[in-house]
TrEMBL record:
Family from the record: Belongs to the ABC transporter superfamily.
UniProt-listed PROSITE patterns: ABC_TRANSPORTER_2
Alphabetical UniProt keywords: ATP-binding, Hydrolase, Nucleotide-binding, Translocase, Transport
KW NAD (keyword) present: no
Gene for this chain: ssuB1
Entry keyword annotation includes ATP-binding: yes
Protein's recorded name: Aliphatic sulfonates import ATP-binding protein SsuB 1
Any one GO molecular-function label of the UniProt entry: ATP hydrolysis activity
The protein's Enzyme Commission number: 3.6.3.-
ABC transporter domain boundaries: 6-240
Domain of life from the UniProt record: Bacteria
Region spans: Disordered: 252-282
Length: 282
């Protein structure tokens, strides 16, 4: 059986209101294997960022459970690293010190000075920023700042990367470069990743699986396994067909049925055909 690094079961999210509880997300399940990239895709307001915080141990779900390597996740864990759209670099620290700062986070193991130095050097080298290690955040471009945030994660040597639209604020060329860097680092370190995005193209380029959230309250509308090898930029025809398939599922689910009508069925089977997207309703 394939090892499961991170597992979520029956996650539900919501917030209290004067007249009761407002549900945002219901009954979400996920299993993440080593080396796998899963994208959670959906429009704004379906609870994607809140879900990522739950998976990171930073927020409690209304219902459900999260486990890491088979053990209940009770809070932030050194095997989990999180990167957000804002790099959140400390402006008074150099690039090198910002990368090192991740090693001081709560619950991180105490490291010998030599191991600490090796981790910092390796992380900075992995993202190609050796030449800028003494620069400060104000001197960095947007792409360099995101590389620094990624290096801060890598220095912790996590088994799981949790990424909340980390490239959303970058220009198209820089974003494409960062996407490829992410794939290279995941392959090199056998790290698994959960990526939150509303960008279908980004999901198709990066993911082994795509989970689509939608409706109110949100639920998993479908799951797709993508068999296409990397890199995928030149596979315009296949990716275009997959994009349309996801959009159709989202649009079909967003239609409001008449009171007497039956809900429109969603994809319910997985058929593994090479080079195709395989919808599977959860």
């Amino acid at each position: 059986m394939t090892e499961v690094l991170l597992e979520a079961r029956g996650i539900s999210l919501g917030y209290p209101r004067e007249q009761g509880w407002q549900s945002v997300l219901e009954n979400f399940d996920l299993q993440l294997a080593p080396g796998e990239v899963i994208t959670i895709l959906g429009p704004s307001g379906v609870g994607k960022s809140s879900l990522l915080r739950v998976l990171a141990g930073l927020q409690q779900a209304r219902a459900g459970s999260v486990s890491l390597l088979g053990e209940p996740l009770q809070g932030p864990h050194p095997r989990l690293a999180v990167a957000f759209q804002d790099p959140s670099l400390l402006p008074w620290l150099s690039l090198e010190s910002n990368v090192a700062f991740g090693l001081d986070f709560a619950r991180q193991p105490t490291l010998a000075a030599s191991e600490r130095r090796a981790r910092i050097d390796h992380a900075i080298e992995a993202v190609g920023l050796q030449h800028a290690r003494e620069q400060y955040p104000a001197q960095l471009s947007g792409g360099m700042a995101q590389r620094t945030a990624l290096a801060r994660c890598l220095a912790r040597q996590p088994q799981v990367l949790l990424l909340d639209e980390p490239f959303g604020a970058l220009d198209e060329v820089t974003r494409a470069d960062m996407q490829q860097l992410l794939l290279q680092l995941i392959a090199r370190h056998n790290t698994a990743a959960v990526l939150i995005t509303h960008d279908i193209d980004e999901a198709l380029l990066l993911s082994d699986r795509v989970l689509l959230l939608g409706n109110h309250p949100a639920r998993t509308l479908g799951q797709w396994h993508i068999d296409l090898p990397q890199p995928r930029e030149q596979r315009v025809e296949e990716l275009g067909a997959l994009r349309i398939d996801i959009l159709k599922t989202l649009r079909r689910a967003s239609r409001t049925p008449e009171p007497s009508s039956e809900p429109m069925p969603l994809p319910s089977e997985t058929a593994h055909v090479p080079g195709r997207l395989h919808p599977h309703s959860s």
